[in-house]
Specification:
Strand order of the largest sheet: 6-7-8-3-9-10
CATH topology of the largest domain: Rossmann fold
Order of helices and strands: EEEHEEHEHHHHEHEHEEHH
Strand content: 25-35%
Number of domains: 2
Helix content: 25-40%
Largest sheet: 6 strands, mixed
CATH class of the largest domain: Alpha Beta
Length: about 230
């Protein structure tokens, strides 16, 4: 479904990604782990068209994404839950969710998906008329995820969904991610809690200073001594 081949990217003269290659199959859940500054968020920005690579190729469903803008990638079936949630603080919860479906023209389907999102996140139903900026951190994360789901993605990009959240909220968020995956949506997960990410996903890549230094089945990476020492607390 998604394939990166030799991708290089950065900001100005700063080279962040140095030949990153990875793939996500249809319906697969894949983790991308690494220390802060390793290039994980930059990888997702390249995938979603927020940053153009200086070299290499990104392919989605067999077609290159070179020159394809972000809004077109959403229409192709790519959803993105960015780091820090980035909800529209002055818009209501309902308006934020509706914006997630801005590329769609099937009004009945949008209504159905809105109801489905509210079933997944009942707290949002209670907050429909509330401004996004007044929600708690956990509620904003639910809103960001719900907004992405309103685009009916076949691939969901998640950037640090547990960041800054209480343990009980993190547990709820990851339970929802698992349900989304079981329903058939492919997931590329960037997550600071490497243990949670490896428990959820079937495969993983380890990124260090812009390069993939390890990859494989998540269960195998969980028991590798160097991975445990670096990312799982020994």
């Amino acid at each position: 479904m998604l394939e990166l081949s030799g991708v290089e990217a950065g900001y100005g003269s700063v080279r962040v990604l140095k030949g990153v290659s990875l793939r996500v199959g249809p319906g697969e859940a894949v983790a991308l782990i690494g220390a802060n500054g390793a290039g994980k968020t930059t990888t997702l920005r390249v995938v979603h068209g927020l940053l153009e690579p200086s070299a290499g190729q990104v392919r989605f469903r067999g077609s290159t994404l070179a020159g394809v803008p972000t809004e077109a990638r959403v229409a192709l079936g790519m959803g993105h839950v960015p780091e820090g949630r980035q909800v529209f603080s002055r818009l209501t919860v309902r308006e934020n969710l509706r914006l997630g479906a801005y590329t769609r023209r099937d009004a009945a389907g949008v209504r159905e998906d809105l109801e489905r999102v509210l079933e997944v996140f009942p707290r949002l139903r209670e907050r429909l008329r509330q401004k996004g900026g007044t929600l708690s951190g956990g509620e904003q994360q639910m809103l960001a995820m719900g907004r992405a789901l309103m685009g009916r993605p076949s691939l969901l990009l998640l950037d640090e969904p547990s960041m800054g959240l209480a343990p009980l909220v993190v547990e709820q968020i990851f339970r929802v991610i698992a349900e989304i995956h079981r329903a058939g949506t492919a997931v590329l997960l960037v997550e600071q809690n490497a243990y949670l990410a490896l428990e959820l996903c079937s495969r993983a890549y380890v990124l260090t200073t812009g390069s993939v230094v390890a990859e494989g089945a998540a269960r195998d990476l969980l028991v590798r001594e160097e991975i445990r020492a670096a990312y799982l607390g020994g």
